[in-house]
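Late entry, evening session. Most of the bench is empty. Finally got around to the prediction I had been postponing all week. Sequence below, unchanged from the version circulated by S.P.
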Amino acid sequence: MLVDLKSKSQVTIPASLIKKMKLKPGDKFDITEKEGKILLTPVIMVPKNQAWFYSEQWQKEEAQVEKEIAEGKVQEAKDKEELFTDLGLNE
């Protein structure tokens, strides 16, 4: 697809790509240059106090937990007393 660079450094993203990528007005993009190409990557802005959840380490641990849940390697306590006992927190 060919698009024109407008006078204010603007480029129109074709409607077919907008629909395919499910983009909407106000979406943010990371723009980079690689080997003479301009790359636009849609990004989601996350509040700083929630960024921990998206860290590589946290996501790795989340994936492990999801795997263990899928494999049935989880236990459910019937009440808080049983939970505390299982965790060694009851005296």
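Two things to note before I forget:
Residues 66 and 72 are 10 Å apart (CA to CA).
The chain has a mean pLDDT of 93.
Will write this up properly tomorrow.
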